[in-house]
Amino acid sequence: MFTGLYYHRLEAKGRLAIPQAFREGLASGGVITSGLDGCLFLFPSSYWQKFSEKLASLPLTNPAARNLTRLLVQSAVNLDLDGQGRTLIPEYLRNQANLKKQVVVAGSLTRIEIWDQELYHQHLDLIAQTISDGDALASLAI
């Protein structure tokens, strides 16, 4: 389970240090892909395998299912950590998530989200407004 929030710098060559706290959960590998809401997703390999099977079981005739599969699968790359816990984030993924120098690496239970720091805080502000309206919480059955 991934929890917590870390601020990191994206190196000039596109390498990002994955926080030490998350590396144990990625010991068997992982997959970086396009995310939702403007971020990238980093899934541990075990979860990605199960998730991929669910995507493959979605009806081919469902346009939303096809689009979600395209978004997540076609941009996916395997996580390749070096000895210092850094991985290269391909340019097309950096561009897609508008990653600049300052990034946020945040745990989201089953995945890690990688955000441009400024966009992350803008998104959090939007979430705070939505939650304060009460509508978002009403739809959750917790």
Strand tally is 8
Cross-sheet strand order for the largest sheet: 1-7-8-4-3-5
Please state roughly what percent of the residues sit in beta strands, choosing from under 5%, 5-15%, 15-25%, 25-35%, 35-45% or over 45%: 25-35%
Give me the Rg, rounded. Answer: 16 Å
SS summary, helix count: 6
State the domain count.
1
Through-space gap between termini: 19 Å
Which stretches of 5+ consecutive residues score pLDDT under 50? none
Q: CATH top level?
A: Alpha Beta
Mean pLDDT: 92
Instruction: Output the CATH homologous superfamily.
Output: Transcriptional regulator MraZ domain
- CATH overall fold name: Chemotaxis protein chec
Helical coverage, percent range: 25-40%
CATH architecture: 3-Layer(aba) Sandwich
Task: Please describe what this structure looks like.
- This protein has helices at residues 20-23, 45-57, 63-73, 91-96, 117-133, 135-138; strands spanning 5-9, 15-17, 30-34, 40-44, 77-78, 86-88, 102-108, 111-116.
- It is α+β, with helices and mostly antiparallel strands and 142 residues long.
- It has a single domain (5-116), classed as 3-Layer(aba) Sandwich (Chemotaxis protein chec), CATH 3.40.1550.
- The radius of gyration is 16 Å and the shape is globular.
- The mean pLDDT is 92.
Any descriptors?
Chemotaxis protein chec; alpha+beta; 6 helices; six-stranded antiparallel sheet; two-stranded antiparallel sheet
